[in-house]
């Protein structure tokens, strides 16, 4: 879509074909659509939904067949449009996506080729975020308390709000954009500015102070019944257990085998929808018959037997390792051990005794 500032200056280009011609010829439709966006100076790309390109010709056909975008939105006929695309049941935001791409790619094209309009651009009356396209005379009923110095402007009028609450009603359509900005934060709230369409509101958002329940730091300082401050007991984090790489791989269930098989298939078919794989696989598993599940159940039983067999072998290996006595510690550095037999030890002991008796005899003679 062209920028908002340029919409008032640009005008719609003349159509090069009739509405009936573009409906009957998808190639002519795509050629005129590309040419239209080129003349408008807007970016054109075919969107991709669920790994497939969106059929813009079918989307234009279904919407114009029901009277155009505004009529489809006003009469809530998006569900009828969705049925023509055969989206999978897991696609929950199909109406939002189709509406978004129709507004950005086909809205102005519809004005020229379906309604045969000329002149300045007409912005869409329905925006993408709006959930309900119906128009109501009073869409906002805001209650806000504002201190002195804050003003609420509606159009060209400015009014000074008192401290008491004042109820404001703003007329307009539901689809007008709403933008909120936090100006300042204080202890118990925020000063905010909200723009609803052309109306600019300023107010205060309060959150009550919870003075009844003390904070964690205050609870730690409160005295207990005995007069001593209470202590906060915290659990110690347990160290991570070491995993033996030789431990057998745990067995898988029948659903695990089914999940692995379907996940590899879905990853090839829908690479952009990995977040939906678990839900899609679960629904497929629930739809299987007993005969279809029997294959995966057999795989689960065989894998369980494999795990029991490997675990038994693993426990036997552990028993053999524990039965082997530990090796003696290596000698310390710098100490040399000499191999001395028992006979040499006895000789050394007897020689030391003879030396002692000789020394005693000499002392007695003296």
Automatic annotation (TrEMBL):
User: Which residue numbers delimit the HMG box domain?
Assistant: 248-315
Q: What is the lineage of its organism?
A: Eukaryota, Viridiplantae, Streptophyta, Embryophyta, Tracheophyta
DNA-binding stretch(es), residue numbering of this chain? 248-315
- Where are the annotated coiled coils located? 297-324
Which SMART domains would you find in this protein's record? ARID, BRIGHT, HMG
Supply the Pfam families for this chain: ARID, HMG_box_2
Q: From the Swiss-Prot or TrEMBL record, give the protein name.
A: High mobility group B protein 9
* CC terms in the record's Gene Ontology section: nucleus
> Which UniProt keywords are present, listed alphabetically?
Coiled coil, DNA-binding, Nucleus
Q: Which InterPro entries does the annotation name?
A: ARID_dom (IPR001606), ARID_dom_sf (IPR036431), ARID_HMGB9-like (IPR045303), HMG_box_dom (IPR009071), HMG_box_dom_sf (IPR036910)
In which residue ranges is the amino acid composition biased (Polar residues)?
349-366
Is Metal-binding among this UniProt entry's keywords?
no
UniProt feature, compositional bias: Basic residues: 231-241
Q: Where is this region: Disordered?
A: 212-248, 325-366
Query: By its UniProt entry, which PANTHER family does this protein fall under?
Result: AT-RICH INTERACTIVE DOMAIN-CONTAINING PROTEIN 2, HIGH MOBILITY GROUP B PROTEIN 9
Q: Which GO terms describe its molecular function?
A: DNA binding
Origin species, per record, is Aristolochia fimbriata (White veined hardy Dutchman's pipe vine)
**Domain ARID residues, every copy:** 23-114
């Amino acid at each position: 879509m062209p920028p908002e500032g340029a919409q008032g200056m640009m005008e719609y280009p003349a159509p090069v074909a009739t509405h009936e011609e573009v409906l009957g010829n998808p190639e002519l439709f795509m050629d005129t659509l590309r040419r239209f966006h080129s003349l408008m100076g807007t970016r054109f790309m075919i969107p991709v939904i669920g790994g497939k390109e969106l059929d813009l010709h079918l989307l234009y056909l279904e919407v114009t067949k029901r009277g155009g975008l505004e009529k489809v939105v006003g009469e809530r006929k998006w569900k009828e449009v969705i049925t023509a695309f055969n989206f999978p049941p897991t696609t929950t935001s199909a109406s939002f996506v189709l509406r978004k791409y129709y507004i950005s790619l086909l809205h102005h094209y519809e004005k020229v080729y379906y309604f045969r309009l000329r002149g300045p651009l007409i912005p869409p009356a329905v925006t993408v975020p709006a959930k309900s396209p119906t128009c109501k005379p009073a869409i906002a009923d805001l209650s806000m308390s504002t201190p002195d110095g804050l003003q609420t402007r509606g159009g060209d009028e400015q009014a000074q709000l008192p401290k008491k609450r004042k109820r404001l009603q703003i007329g307009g359509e539901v689809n007008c954009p709403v933008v909120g900005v936090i100006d300042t934060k204080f202890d118990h709230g925020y000063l905010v500015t909200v723009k609803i369409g052309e109306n600019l509101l300023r107010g205060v958002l309060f959150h009550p102070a919870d003075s009844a329940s003390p904070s964690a730091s205050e609870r730690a300082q409160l005295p207990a019944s005995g007069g001593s401050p209470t202590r906060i007991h915290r659990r110690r984090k347990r160290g991570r257990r070491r995993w033996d790489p030789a431990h057998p791989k745990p067995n898988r269930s029948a659903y695990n085998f089914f999940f692995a098989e379907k996940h590899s298939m879905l990853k090839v078919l829908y690479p952009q929808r990995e977040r939906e794989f678990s839900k899609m696989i679960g629904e497929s598993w629930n739809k299987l018959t007993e005969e279809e599940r029997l294959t995966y159940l057999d795989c689960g039983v065989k894998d369980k037997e494999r795990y029991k067999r490997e675990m038994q072998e693993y426990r036997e290996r552990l028993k053999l390792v524990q039965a082997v006595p530990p090796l003696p510690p290596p000698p310390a550095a710098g100490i040399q051990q000499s191999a001395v037999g028992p006979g040499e030890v006895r000789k050394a002991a007897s020689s030391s005794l003879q030396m002692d008796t000789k020394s005693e005899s000499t002392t007695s003679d003296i």
